[in-house]
Design a protein that fits this description.
single chain; 248 residues; alpha/beta; five-stranded antiparallel β-sheet; 11 strands; 33% helix
C-alpha cells in the first residue's frame, strides 16, 4: 500500500556555488501541507539563493521533491510559485494587475494560447482572496507597495501552486500592510497552501509564525521561534560564527 507523502516540499542536501564561493551547502528540511514558515537570516546569508535553487532557477546540488515527485529541472517545478524581492523596476513595467495575475495561468496552456474564460475566473478569484477585487485594469505603478505584494501573491494563487516562496515580501511596507499580508498568508495556509516567507523582522517571526528556518550559508536551526530564534542560534546566524560565503 502506498502511503501519502508526509511533506509537500522536501529538500535534501541543497547546495549552490558561485564560482569558487560556496553560497549555500547541505540544506535539508521538509515542509508539510498548510505550513506557514519564516525564513530568517542576515543579508547575503543565502535565503534568496535557497529559494532560487528550490525553484530550479540556479544550478545546485542536492534533491528537491514536491508532493513526493523528484524535481529534475525547471519544468518539473511548476507546482512551486516564487515571489522574488520587489524593486522599483516592477512599478514601471507596462503591465496591468490583471495581466500580471493571468501570467500565473501560463502553466495550464501552450505558450501561444490565449487566456480562457476559466483562466480569467481563476485570476479574478485570486485577486478577491487578497482583497484586490476590481483592480484588473490598473497599472502596477498605481499600486502601493502593499498592494503590489498582494498582486504578486494573487499571481501565485492563480498558478495554483502547492508551495509559495516569498522573498522579503514584507520589506518596505508599513505596519498595517504587514499585518494585512500576514493575515492573508495565514488564511492561505489554513486553506492548504504551504508558504515560506523570508523576513528580517525577528519580532514578527516570533509573534506570527509557528516555525522558523534560520539560514546563513546552511540551515542553522529549524523549529518553533523559542528554539530557532534562541540567543545561541541568533549568534550563529547573525554573528561572526554565521559567516556564510566560503571560498575554496
Amino acid at each position: 500500500m502506498n502511503l501519502p507523502h508526509p511533506d509537500v516540499l522536501e529538500v535534501t542536501g541543497l547546495g549552490v556555488r558561485y564560482g569558487p564561493v560556496r553560497a549555500l551547502y547541505d540544506v535539508s528540511f521538509g515542509v508539510g501541507r498548510g505550513e506557514l514558515v519564516a525564513v530568517i537570516g542576515p543579508n547575503g546569508a543565502g535565503k534568496s539563493t535557497m529559494f532560487k535553487a528550490i525553484c530550479g532557477l540556479v544550478n545546485h546540488e542536492g534533491v528537491v521533491e514536491v508532493n513526493g515527485v523528484h524535481c529534475h529541472d525547471h519544468a518539473d517545478r511548476m507546482d512551486l510559485a516564487y515571489i522574488p524581492q520587489r524593486n522599483d523596476s516592477d512599478l514601471n513595467f507596462p503591465i496591468t494587475v490583471g495581466e500580471l495575475v493571468l501570467a500565473g495561468r501560463r502553466r495550464f496552456r501552450h505558450w501561444y494560447g490565449r487566456p480562457t474564460a476559466h483562466d480569467r475566473d481563476v485570476a479574478a478569484d485570486a485577486l478577491s482572496r487578497v482583497q484586490l477585487a476590481g483592480t484588473e485594469h490598473r497599472s502596477l505603478h498605481e499600486l502601493s507597495g502593499g498592494q503590489l505584494q498582494r498582486a504578486y501573491v494573487a499571481r501565485a494563487l492563480a498558478q495554483q501552486a502547492s508551495v509559495v516562496l516569498l522573498d522579503e515580501a514584507l520589506s518596505g511596507v508599513d505596519q498595517p500592510t504587514t499585518t494585512g499580508l500576514i493575515d492573508v498568508f495565514e488564511t492561505l495556509a489554513a486553506e492548504g497552501t504551504t508558504l515560506l516567507v523570508a523576513t528580517h523582522d525577528l519580532a514578527l517571526a516570533r509573534r506570527r509564525f509557528r516555525r522558523c528556518l534560520a539560514v546563513n550559508g546552511t540551515l542553522r536551526a529549524d523549529g518553533p521561534p523559542e528554539t530557532a530564534l534562541s540567543a545561541d542560534v541568533l549568534d550563529a546566524t547573525f554573528g561572526s560564527a554565521g559567516h556564510h560565503a566560503l571560498a575554496d
